[in-house]
Amino acid sequence: MTKILRIINRFNVGGPVNNALYLSKYLGDEFETKLIGGVHTEEEISAEFMFVEQNISYEIIPEMSRQISLLSDYKAYQKICAIIKEYQPDIVHTHASKAGLIGRLAAFRHKVPIVVHTFHGHVFHSYFGPLKTTVFIYIERFLAKFTSKIIAISPKQKEELVKEYKIAPESKFQVIPLGFDLNKFKTDQESKRDLFRSKYHIEEDTIVISIIGRLVPIKNHHLFIEAIAHLKKSCKQEIKAFIVGDGHLKKTLQDQAKSLGLSVSNDEISSDINFTSWIIHTEEVYAGSDIIALSSKNEGTPVTLIEAQVAMKSIVTTNVGGVKDILVNSESNIIARDNAEDFAKSLKQAIKQLEYSPVKIQVKEETLKKYTFTSLVKTMKKTYLNLASQYA
Question: Which of 103, 256, 335, 361 is deepest in the core (most CB within 10 A)?
Answer without folding.
Answer: 103
